[in-house]
């Protein structure tokens, strides 16, 4: 039978039968409570009433996600780190159906006061994929609260380039490092634009010294590619000793990072206040070349393209971000 009682400014309807746990819900008016109770009793009579699914807490689902889904991704280490960060939050102890858009928005605003917007975007993206996995694959009737809120704006992209003299200083420091491979590693990174993970994944069998290329079977976007080697890059590879593992660089990410950090001393003191008022010269490389690693300059040999205004002896530059072709 159904009972009704007023609690504050709300009316609570409660339906209870033998062999069935109590079912209750609150409404603004008593007629709404009566209508809901009649509907529940009708479903109980027909045997079609489905009790509300009990939702688990977020924490065990994140643990399950890291164990089952994360190992299938390339960025598994980053995802494990973000999962560890989420485990420290109050949301980890909340039930799925209690994590609403409003709750996530409050987390976003609080977190933005502590870390950068890009960090918050990555954390929210991880929360979103966990909810999508719960909704699509694990049979939980929940909505994705991350889709109900405004994501933080992405940070400005890094445009830092090596200035005049910096590359020489960098390589000189690398040569003095106890890590014998560091100089070759940095030279290859500068010459080819390969990512750190791609460099560490190169085996000697991928290197073709005759054709001056390196084959990358596994890249960030999942598509293999062949990278041409300049004379400088080729010399850097040939300077490396062969290892039993067959890898070009047998060290890991942490070893490379630590070796690089040890190569640069900490400068004491404070910068001069006058540095805020200095004027930089205009550098055409900065203005015209955005993808420096994919931009080349060479001297033309032969006359097959004179009809296009390209003559022998001219210096030509080409690249995906150049504003047209520059001939000197």
SSE topology sketch:
Layout: E1 2-7, E2 10-17, E3 20-27, H1 30-46, H2 58-68, H3 76-86, H4 101-112, H5 117-136, H6 166-175, H7 182-192, H8 196-200, E4 207-208, E5 213-216, E6 225-228, H9 231-238, H10 253-262, H11 284-288, E7 296-299, E8 315-318, E9 326-327
Antiparallel strand pairs: 1-2, 2-3, 4-5, 5-6, 7-8, 8-9
Main attributes of the structure:
alpha+beta, hpI Integrase, Chain A, 11 helices, 328 residues
CATH fold field value of the largest domain: hpI Integrase, Chain A
Say what oligomer this is.
single chain
The sequence of SSEs as H and E is EEEHHHHHHHHEEEHHHEEE
Biggest sheet strand order reads 1-2-3
Short summary:
This protein has 328 residues and is of the alpha+beta class.
Structure explained in plain terms:
This protein is α+β, with helices and mostly antiparallel strands and 328 residues long. It folds into four domains: 2-46; 58-148; 166-262, hpI Integrase, Chain A; 291-328, no CATH class. The chain has eleven helices and nine strands. The chain has a three-stranded antiparallel beta sheet, covered by helices on one side. Helix 2 runs antiparallel to helix 3 (76-86), helix 3 packs across helix 5 and helix 7 (182-192) runs antiparallel to helix 9. The longest helix has 20 residues, at 117-136. The radius of gyration is 31 Å and the shape is elongated. Mean pLDDT is 80; it is low at 320-328.
